[in-house]
Amino acid sequence: MYAIIQTGGKQFTVKTGDIIEVEKLAVEAGQETVFGEVLAIGGDDGKLTTGAPFVAGAEVKGKVLDQFRAKKVIAFKMKRRKGYRRTHGHRQNMTRVEIGEIKG
After folding, report:
1. Which of 2, 13, 37, 69 sits between 20 and 30 A of 101, alpha carbons compared?
2. pTM to 2 decimals?
3. Residues 6 or more apart from 84 whose CB is under 8 A from it?
């Protein structure tokens, strides 16, 4: 069984046992979290249940493994022959989650 969930403005296809990295959740490491925005649930028999926009009563439970910061992204601006150069870096706060139970 798998599910398509939405968190942090992004969509993830998950199944039990998967480890995903999502934008920071306000949950401590070792605690449980519940994803209530389930867009679709698919079974092993090929049946797919979609929501409009979310599947009613469906939820995905996960365990927060740790909080970390992603790899640095560099934004570099330059105008040729003018001596204009600007460098700006950004590291996004992320949460690593292990998917547990999928209810649908």
Report:
1. 69
2. 0.85
3. 77, 78
